[in-house]
Design brief:
Helix 1 links the parallel strand 1 and strand 2. The protein is α/β, with parallel strands linked by helices and about 270 residues long. The C terminus is likely disordered.
Amino acid sequence: MIFYFTGTGNTKWAAEQLARSTGEQLLYIPEELKKDSCEYCLQEGERLGFCFPTHGWQPPRIVREFIRKATFRSTSYIYALTTCGDNMGHAMRIFNKELGRQGLHTDATFAVVMPESNVCFSFLHLDTPERERQKIEAARLRMQHICQVVTDRQCGVEELVKGAIPYTYTYVIGGYYNKHLITDQHFWVDNEACIQCGLCAKLCPVDDIEGTPPQWKHDGSCTNCLACYHHCPKHAIHWGKMKRGQYVMVDLESKSRLTGVKKLVD
């Protein structure tokens, strides 16, 4: 079993590579959380994998909630993968603590650098199209290696990209981010640009959006995955005062044409 969460598609893409390589089932965490019971009994020899993006140098809140709710039985090999813009700080340390409360531990952990998608910090910027292509090409090669490690059930593997000051990233900057910016209060809609397609509501993993033009419920459920922001076909949804670009992962088979950029629409 492979459990994943995604906003812009980066982590879904990585999880799909693992599913194809191992032949194991891919499950979407937000859908699993909606079930009355999150109890899973793995088949003999089946791997247990978790794939999630790094949000503010920490695991997304929705992933942590799932780990606390779920029960896993008959686990033989556990691995976790996080995608990140440039580095992931101590996000995997926090994830492993959550897993440890269930009496479980990872046999292998990985980080995969992907194009940047965070528009919530003024000092973070989306990558240029060329930089996106470079990152996606490197990620494709990286995933080939990770798939082999997981397929072979290699243990004691820790291939992470923590950055120069991981403690500061995760517990200082990330602490502020996850305490104050995981909210739907900063989203707003350009009603003139909105075509009322309803895509944002369909993509919201926690059903926090309703109506057209979209309105956020402000009920505390928002996980700030930015799916509504980045997938809007007219870039009518904005976050905060700054108007910035969009990014979604587009999986193209031709390596020479890899791109994840979604241009601004006038």
